[in-house]
Amino acid sequence: DPHRKVILLVDDQNLVAAAVRSLLAGQEGWELHHVSRATEAADAARRLRPHVILQDMVLPDGSGLELIGRYAQIRDRPGTQVVILSGYEAPEHKAAAFDAGAFDYIVKMPAQAEFVVRVRHAIRQAEMVETQVGLLDAAEAANRQAARELAERREAERKLEEVNLQLREELHARMESLHRIASDLGQLRDLVLLMRRLLAEAREGGGCEAGSILRAEGDDLVFTYAQ
Prior knowledge:
about 20% strand
């Protein structure tokens, strides 16, 4: 469903979860899920494939900043954006969040209009990144296919060149053989020797284990020379 937008809230305070649910109420297609512990967050992100993760900085069993790196390893939705939802407004906390890879930093709790707009902006960023990744994957697949086809064509050209070279060598050998035969036959005066030599050269040129020369006598063919 293109209208379905999945949002995962990772926060250990139920009051915050209720406030976020209230702020996002009325947004068509937006689907909010909530977990309260760091140990649940990565599995939930992998299962839900959220567009946006609203992440608290401090959890009872872990750090929200450390979770950002774990989210980046989830490939099912490569565009997932992490928005820090924190009670700390100090610049060093914001710097640490952005340095860890967060897309945005929201201090709990802003006005509804601001909150919705910033979440929507994160969703759009997620969709844009996912589209770009999809295009890059398609381009890489096309490049790999083109490389395979080029390699196959070059291999076919190489084999064809080998066949052509072999044919040229065989033709050259046969031409030399014909010239040699013509020269030898021109010196032969014995018909028997001439026929035997012709038959031997014909068998060798045709790759035949046996051969014969037949002479026409009226309506019959008579075996005259055989090898």
